[in-house]
Design goal:
Layout (H helix, E strand, L loop, with lengths): L5 H22 L4 E6 L10 H8 L4 E11 L6 H10 L3 E7 L3 H6 L6 H13 L5 E7 L6 H8 L9 E6 L7 H4 L7 H17 L3 E4 L2 E3 L6 H7 L12 E4 L2 E5 L3 H9 L5 E5 L5 H10 L6 E2 L8 H12 L3 E4 L2 E4 L1 H5 L1 H8 L1
Parallel strand pairs: 1-2, 2-3, 3-4, 4-5
Antiparallel strand pairs: 5-7, 6-7, 8-9, 9-10, 11-13, 12-13
Helix pairs in contact: 1-10, 6-8, 11-14
Length: about 350
C-alpha cells in the first residue's frame, strides 16, 4: 500500500506518463472501449485528469465506459461532480454492507448511512451508472442482518452490483484471530436470499458474481471474461495483450526507477500454449450466464470434451445448441467446473 502523500503522488504521476509513452505505439489505431481506475483508492489520486487527457487523444468508442472506484467515506458530492466534469461516467463504490454491525466487523470506517449518502450524492452529481459491492458470509452475520441490507437496495439509485462471499485467506487478520464465517447451508441461504431480492429490484444476474439493470452490464469486466486485450498502468497492474499476460512490479519506487532508466517495469509475463490457452478461456467464459459458444473453441482437446460430458452428466453444465452454460447447481460449484475444464 502506498501512503497518500504528495511526494508519492508526484513519483506516480511522472512514472505513469513515462509508461503511457512507452505503451502508446501498441494503442495506435485502436478504439478504446473502457477505462477503469481501480486498485486501492484511485479517487484520492489527483492525477486522474492528466491521465484522461492522454486517453482522449485516442479514438474512444461512442459508448466508452470510464469507471472509477471510490470508498463511501471519501465520496463527497463535490468530488463526484468533479469526476463527471472529467468525463468519468461510471462509479464503483465499495459499500460492502448496509448494516453498521457488519461494517464494524469488516473494519470499514464508513457507516451504512454514509454509504447511502454517497450513492445519492453520485446521482446528484450526474452519475447514471453506479455500481456497489456487497459481501456476505461475514463473521457474526445472521440471515436477519443480511436481509436488512438487501431490503434497503430498492430505495437506492444503483445500476450494478457485485456480490462476494468473504473468504479468509492465510496471514490475514481474520485468519490470525481464527474468525469463523457462516458455512454450508447457512451460506446457501444467504446466497438464495440475495438472488431472490436482486431479481425483485431489477438487478439481473449476468455473471456469477455480477448483477445489473439492462444495459448496465460492466463493459470493462466483460472484457476480462471474453479475453478482450487490455493494458494496465501503474505498480502491480496486469495486462493482457496479443495472447500474453504480464504484470508490473509492485513497488512504486522500483516501478518508477525502471521507467526512468528506459527499462520495462514488467516483472512477470506468461503466454499459455495450446490447448492450455483454450481451456482457460473456456473456463473463464462460462462465468457468464449466457455461456460459451463452443464454435469459438474448435478444436477442443479430447480431455476437455470428456470433462464437459462428465460435468453435464452430474448436472453442473448444460448445452443448448452450441452454447455451453453452467446450471444453477454449476453456478454454486464453479471452482470445481473450472478445475475439471483446465
Amino acid at each position: 500500500m502506498i501512503p497518500n502523500q504528495a511526494r508519492h503522488r508526484a513519483v506516480l504521476r511522472e512514472a505513469l506518463a513515462l509508461e503511457w509513452e512507452r505503451q502508446l505505439p501498441l494503442l495506435r489505431g485502436k478504439t478504446i472501449t473502457s477505462v477503469y481506475f481501480g486498485g486501492g483508492t484511485p479517487a484520492l489520486y489527483d492525477g486522474i485528469g492528466d491521465i484522461l487527457e492522454r486517453v482522449k487523444q485516442l479514438p474512444l468508442a461512442p459508448d466508452c465506459e470510464i469507471t472509477i472506484e471510490a470508498n463511501p467515506e471519501e465520496s463527497t458530492q463535490e468530488l463526484l461532480a468533479g469526476f463527471r466534469t472529467l468525463g468519468i461516467n461510471r462509479l464503483s463504490l465499495g459499500v460492502q454492507s448496509l448494516d453498521d454491525r457488519s461494517l464494524l466487523t469488516l473494519e470499514r470506517i464508513h457507516s451504512a448511512e454514509k454509504a447511502k449518502q454517497a450513492i445519492f450524492d453520485a446521482k446528484k452529481a450526474g452519475f447514471t451508472n453506479v455500481s456497489i459491492d456487497l459481501m456476505y458470509d461475514l463473521p457474526g452475520q445472521t440471515e436477519e442482518s443480511w436481509r436488512y441490507t438487501l431490503n434497503q437496495l430498492e430505495e437506492l439509485p444503483i445500476h450494478h452490483l457485485s456480490l462476494y462471499n468473504l473468504t479468509i485467506e492465510p496471514h490475514t487478520a481474520f485468519h490470525k484471530r481464527r474468525v469463523e464465517t457462516p458455512k454450508g447451508e447457512i451460506s446457501l441461504r444467504f446466497l438464495a436470499a440475495a438472488l431472490e431480492r436482486l431479481e425483485q429490484v431489477g438487478l439481473r444476474r449476468y455473471e456469477i458474481s455480477a448483477f445489473a439493470r439492462p444495459g448496465h452490464e460492466s463493459r470493462h469486466n466483460l472484457g476480462y471474461w471474453t479475453a478482450r486485450p487490455f493494458l494496465g498502468y501503474g505498480p502491480s497492474a496486469f495486462s493482457y495483450w496479443e495472447g500474453e499476460r504480464f504484470r508490473n512490479i509492485a513497488n512504486l519506487n522500483r516501478y518508477a526507477r525502471r521507467l526512468q532508466e528506459g527499462i520495462s517495469p514488467v516483472d512477470f509475463q506468461e503466454r499459455l500454449p495450446y490447448p492450455a490457452d483454450l481451456k482457460e478461456l473456456l473456463a473463464v467464459r462460462i462465468r457468464l450466464k449466457e455461456g460459451a459458444d463452443l464454435t469459438l473453441f474448435d478444436p477442443l482437446p479430447e480431455e476437455t470434451t470428456a470433462a464437459i460430458e462428465m460435468l453435464k452428466q452430474i448436472g453442473l453444465l448444460a448445452q443448448e445448441g452450441t452454447k455451453l452454460k453452467l446450471t444453477d447447481r454449476g453456478l454454486l460449484f464453479y471452482d470445481t467446473v473450472a478445475t475439471e475444464l483446465i
